[in-house]
Amino acid sequence: MDDTTTTFKNLALELQANLDKIYQNTPGFIGSRVVSFGSGSIIANFILIFNPTTSLSEIEAIDIFRSALTSEAEITSGSGLFLTSLPAFIIFLPCEDLTCENSGTCIITSDRSGGECRCTDSWTGDRCQTSSNSKLTELPVNCPDFDRTIGTDPGQATYTFSPDFGADDVTKSVDGYRYHGGDVSVNITLGGSPVGSGVSIGTHDVIALIYDDELSKTCTGTYHVQDDESPFIMCSNLTVPFGNVVANYDAVVSDNVDEPSSLRVDFAPKQPGQRLDPGVNEISATVTDSAGNINSTVCYIDIQMTELPVEILQASAAYDGNTYSLFFRGHLKEGLTSLNFAFYGDVIYDPIIVNGVEQFQPADLSPGVNNIRIEATDGVLSKTIQFVLNVTRNQPVNYELTGNMVLARIKGIDAPFTQDLLDDTTTTFKNLALELQANLDKIYQNTPGFIGSRVVSFGSGSIIANFILIFNPTTSLSEIEAIDIFRSALTSEAEITSGSGLFLTSLPAFIIFLPCEDLTCENSGTCIITSDRSGGECRCTDSWTGDRCQTSSNSKPTSIAVIVGNNSRCTFILHPHPDLGPLRARFEKQNGDEISEQPGSCWAHIYVWDKR
């Protein structure tokens, strides 16, 4: 039977328990042990263990066993173990004839065939009769664990080697060994440097020589010296009476290993050079060294500016022969630039009060003295600006360049036309007009003679914005030059100045350029500007063709021409279909009773036909 099985273990434990119970009161009894089981019903081989001084004989052992049986040969009443015969005992005294010298101890061999001596560390041999000192070639001491991870000295880039092991800490590996010369010594180096040396950051080998007058032993280990000290940082509080941008927070840093210039310093929530909020701003400053040690502190920056720092640089009255309009430019106060101040949002000059009457920008003025009050704000700071502008009746007529553009998107959102854009008193009209005027002013601000811009109206077609650029009378700017200036302000995605969020479907048309005003594209077609920018044309879907996308792609086109024109100058451009011959046109006067084939001063209708 396998002594590792549960069956063996359970039966052996049960039998041992009954044997222990039978002999527990026998002088010198220590315990029992089941050695094996054999066949023949079950033959149990066991050992009763007594101390060496016992005088129990085999016959006495059998008599004790017999007295524990019931009449039915059960081992102790109620155990359930029945015998077919009494056990046969052989007395085994393995250490009776074995004497162990020099404090050795006799123990039974693992196969229980006899006894053997267990010697102390200083002796050897079958009876511990031979000194182990006579065979040693190495000092019989234990090597300690020399592996360490240790930090640099406070404030230093090195570690001063000071091991925590000396002669008093040496332990013998052989009991009873006597050091030659009466004492033991220890010599330890770290990376070749003696105790007390400064050791740099990194991994270094420890070598410890432990010795007496005759024998020695070398023990080794590894020291990992690392920088575990956090760098120093201090951030001073600042008071900023003028401006809201601080280019460099006053943070002082140092480290026991790294140079200040190599330390990484982070600020939150605002980095140096970013706009701060009015009032006290809490800034967290964090420094990190090359070992990853971190330290942080907090400083406070007080932005004391409470008023929008703008002034009116220039205010003038622009006269178009009928109306005097107010135009002005605001600028930052002296001493402020983009390096120390940033607006919290777009600056809006609204409302404008002229002689006590609120007006939309640009406001209308009256000849004579005009008392003007302008409320300016960037969404956080605000300021009331007041000044007087005297308008004379002999004001020269200003140069006006009228134009229009088509807005496709406003700040990433499609720009559908809404009815409230027809009313210049609505908030929708005013906000869009102010935003567009601000961008037009930004585009043309450096153009000689430029005074300002004015949005006149909005029309449908996404959103068509009609506006005026106003220059002083001496300007020489042409329509082509105005378009070129505008083109240079566009991004590759047709955004009006980078970051404005206003996107166009075409460049603005000045004076006579209204490419899509009179062109209707059918069947989901879209009007676009021609590549030479001389007019408009329809971009059709795959299923349609023709100048207005009115013809199925499977039939012949029926359109014959595209007309682009402007009634105010009585000019037009006629684009015939390439498959047709010469075309004829006639113009009907507005009164409806004159029809000719030549353009007059104005017309209400244009009719175009071919020879058919």
TrEMBL record:
Signal found in the keyword field: no
Cystine connections: C100-C117, C119-C128, C521-C538, C540-C549
Annotated keywords: Disulfide bond, EGF-like domain
Domain EGF-like, chain residue ranges per copy: 91-129, 512-550
Ranges of residues in domain SEA: 1-87, 397-508
Xref: Pfam families: SEA (PF01390)
Name of the protein in question: Uncharacterized protein
Phylogenetic placement of the source organism: Eukaryota, Metazoa, Echinodermata, Eleutherozoa, Echinozoa
